[in-house]
Amino acid sequence: MAFKRGDVLQIVNMDDDTWWQARSARNDSSRAGLIPSKQLQERRSFRLSRKSGRTKNASWFWRWSTEVQGATCPHTYREVIPYLREAKDKQRLITLVGPSGVGVNELRRRLVISDPDRYGVSVPYTTREKKGQEREGVDYHFVSVHKFEEDILNHRLIEYGSYKGHYYGTSLDSAHRVMVTGKMCLMDVHPSKIKFIDTSKFKPYVVFVKPPSIEELRLTRRRVKFLCDKEDPNQVHTFTEENFQDMIDLAETMEIQYGHLFDKIIVNGDVATAFKELKEDLEKVAEPGIHWVPKEWSRPTLKKTQRSCGHLTGLF
Fold first, then answer.
1. Residue 200 falls within a domain, yes or no?
2. In Å, how far from its chain's centre is CA 308?
3. Are residues 193 and 218 in the same domain?
4. Angle subtended at Cα 173 by Cα 169 and Cα 176, rounded to the nearest 5 degrees
5. What SS3 class is residue 54?
6. Range of the domain at 71
7. Are residues 19 and 105 in the same domain?
């Protein structure tokens, strides 16, 4: 049975240790076919990741994801459930990830400009003094060192670091403040930090922005200037051949290690085309209706979703 990462499969028989019987969850009339069992996939991955595992669950729905070298734990399949998103529900946290220089910031900027009533951004925290025309809660949240370090200890920061003696960080509270306004919060983090927001509270929708081929990068980015350091606007550079190769290598590493967490992959060759694809995809994510989400996000409020999909309830 042919399938790809992100496809939702209904597992109808798991008796065999090597091959399972499954069919597409999106097509009730489809016939069952054979797919590699979780155990087989992990066995194949053992030579790369030196990790394996086995599932003994009965018939479930699973979303395919690739288990590969460097992942922190085996993720061959991920159990999912149908979630009924209603119009009154908060929007999901839109998490944009990708290597430096691929255009994540530009795509985020275009989204906010295109519809500021729908999209918002999480404002970072810093311990440095406010500069010039900077505004509290717009450019940064300016906090004391004590407050920042308290947030670190209480695990309120998704990621943080220091630069020239000052802390900078991305806060869970900042993202939540945007979400409660009804907007889609756009956040860019390193994919290793997704685990901190992979909860029912945030329901992250993860978009991986991937570079095109190195030939296309040479054509589209050779004369493009990029800001190396937000804190130092004078550090503007053009891309080099080494930058292009580093971007591609890092993207491959990210996809290998964290690809099982990506809901959408967009190749940013032409930024206008990538932006159009991203915006159309996020419009679908915002629509009320059935969405497949990890079972770990399941809460009592999701039971009504299962009842509304009676033909699926017996499988969970």
1. yes
2. 27
3. yes
4. 125
5. coil
6. 8-86+293-313
7. no
Of the candidates 247, 244, 279, the one whose C-alpha atom is nearest the C-alpha of residue 264 is 279
Tell me how many domains the chain contains: 2
CATH number at residue 277: 3.40.50.300
**CB half-sphere exposure, 25, CA atoms < 13 A:** 24
Q: What are the backbone dihedrals phi and psi of residue 312, each rounded to the nearest 5 degrees, phi first?
A: -110, -20
3-state secondary structure of 102: coil
Indicate whether 42 and 79 sit together in one domain. Answer: yes
The one-digit pLDDT tens for each residue of the chain (316 residues) are: 888 777 888 888 888 888 988 888 877 667 888 888 887 776 665 554 444 334 444 344 555 543 333 344 545 788 888 889 998 999 999 999 999 999 999 999 999 999 999 999 999 999 999 998 999 989 999 999 999 999 999 999 999 999 999 999 999 999 999 999 999 999 999 999 999 999 999 999 999 999 999 999 998 887 665 555 555 555 667 888 999 999 999 999 999 888 888 999 999 999 999 999 999 999 999 999 988 888 888 754 444 444 333 222 223 2
Q: For residues 68 and 259, is the Cβ–Cβ distance under 8 A?
A: yes
Intra-chain end-to-end CA distance of the chain, in Å? 23
55 found inside a domain = yes
Distance (Å) of CA 161 to CA 125, 142, 167, 235: 11, 15, 6, 19
Beta strand pairing call for 33-36 and 19-24: antiparallel
| 224 within some domain | yes
**In a domain? residue 137:** no
Sign of the C-alpha dihedral computed for residues 63, 94, 180 and 176 taken in this order? positive
